Amino acid sequence: MAQSLNDESRVPNIVFIKGLPAANEQIQIQALELLRTRRIFTHVSVHSAPKQFLIVFITANCDAKLTHHLNDQIFISHTHDPEEGFQNLEEEWSEREEDDGASTSSVIHRKATEQSFPAQHPLFGAEDIRAIADQSDKVTITAEILAYLHNIIVFLRLNRAVRGGVSPRATEHFRLLVKCLAPLHGLDYVTPSLIPLAARKVYPHRIVITKPENERSMQYGSDLRAVAAMLEGIGPSDVVETVLEEVEMPL
Hints:
Number of helices: 9
Distance between the termini: 59 Å
Order of helices and strands: HEHEEEHEEHHEHHEHH
Helix content: 25-40%
Strand content: 5-15%
Strand order of the largest sheet: 1-4
Radius of gyration: 23 Å
């Protein structure tokens, strides 16, 4: 059956975009426009996105950065370490171990089994998404939890390694994700343990690490080499983990 004109001009519910950090700024602005207005313009038509719409950006480098405004619009991020394996791949796994005393290498084959996949159907239908959204709107957050969330935001902004990225929109996404995690864990209220989970998803792709010469203590006469040594090897995820250790979790 041929698609109608309306079907052809509609954007799919889920869009996967690979390698966007390597694209020029104009293309990234179009992706930002799609996120903000749910429409994308071409020379001949306008393509509209559905109400339930998701964009997934895939990058091979976790340090790759998008334009500032587009990066701030991204809700959450997830980094998968190749050393953790890819258990959901259907092809066989093979790993070679070299033996110094043998002329050939031993090969270990790992076949994907049914245990690699969830026992229940993993797909979310439209009704499931609406139900979770309704439940998240009714989630209760106590004053103590709000104070804990607020303290994490303050500590992130005041961290010496942070130049920027802890934006008002990030705070909005932080609070929203906390409320969305509760029904996914079968709760109608936010527990303290959900806050670190949300922080690790919302902030790593946003936080910008400062350069040694721009670190704030340089204004008061700090030694540049000492500051550079202090910042060496520190990444956004390290900053988040440091803050989570510094801020006391409510009981």
